[in-house]
From TrEMBL:
Keywords, alphabetical: Metal-binding, Oxidoreductase, Zinc
Designated name of the protein: Zinc-binding dehydrogenase
Domain Enoyl reductase (ER): 20-372
Key word Metal-binding present: yes
Cofactor dependency: Zn(2+)
Keyword Zinc recorded: yes
Top-level taxon: Bacteria
Transmembrane regions: none
Family under the similarity heading: Belongs to the zinc-containing alcohol dehydrogenase family.
PANTHER family in the record: GROES-LIKE ZINC-BINDING ALCOHOL DEHYDROGENASE FAMILY PROTEIN, NAD-DEPENDENT ALCOHOL DEHYDROGENASE
Amino acid sequence: MPQHVPAFVLEPAEDSTAVGPERLHADEIDVAAPHPGEVLVDVAACGVCHTDLHVMKDEVAFPTPAVLGHEVSGVVREVGEGVTHVAPGDRVACSFIMPCGTCRHCEKGLEDLCETFFQQNRLAGHLYDGTTRYSREGEDVAMYSMGGHARSCVVPGRAVFPLPDEVPLHDAAILGCSLFTGYGAVRGVADVQPGENVAVVATGGVGLSIIHLARAAGAQRVIAVDIDDEKLALAAELGATDVINSSTQDAADEVRRLLGHGVDVAFEALGSVATVSLAVDLLDDGGRAVLAGIAPAGQTLDVEIAKLVRRKLRILGSFGAPASTTMPEVIRLAAEGNIDLERLITDRFTFEEIGEAYRKLNDREIRGRGLVVVRPELR
């Protein structure tokens, strides 16, 4: 039988100006039982991510009505046929990339490029049989990843990972996007080596995770670049060796003053033309710019080709990571105390405050990662 649960539903925009968090409305939806290979999770917490905000603002196309929220932790309520690695009652965290395991990319280990995930979920709002598990009064409701802005959600089993007792259940939500994305950028794409110098442009939730993980990877200097002094102060607490406010300083000049040259790796964690261009400008000869921020559709990068060629620069995209190998690793790092989840989470909201959480994110009032505590009673 379907569950009838509270959720925040993103409604269709009434006109081109009515976009943003105001489109979120508290309602109730029906959540169907998990199909084979799926897991029904009672949501403990869900992270507040800029990617969801892009969807609310129609900067990323997605069908509506929809339930957003793609950074989830919770407790397993029910498992579908064939799921054996978790059982009802297990504490779990979920990766926002939900690999099918059978497409041509997944078969090569490139789960972060899973064609089924992008075609069925990120374009159509479905799970992998072409249907959604959410409905409202008989009408389909799209799912953005697992749709964590509801008190229960259904997740493909390949995106569900058990948590050890050492990892706090609510805080573990941010492992599935913020830390997952950061780890993919630092270790999977950039392959940061001990002694390298890195810069991180934009120090929100993902940027702070990159700073934290770059220091853990042995980076010698980690230079945080942002326009907000409070965010930069938090970046210093989480491992940045140097901070630059690019609204008052020329970041490229300041990096070269600090190091005598550019950085080996520059991470971009916002998704704008200005911040991506800045990341490229911060590079030393032979350096690599790793772009981890999602930009609104249609934005393009204008790079001086001669500089790119002569200086042997590399521009690399990074979208998440392979879930099957990365999630166990970030969970292990959290269990061993090598990731400071409590400090990364700077703002906590109740389930009823989801709209307010995204308004604050839109107004740049969240210093690090925001977290919505959906079911405070779960532990």
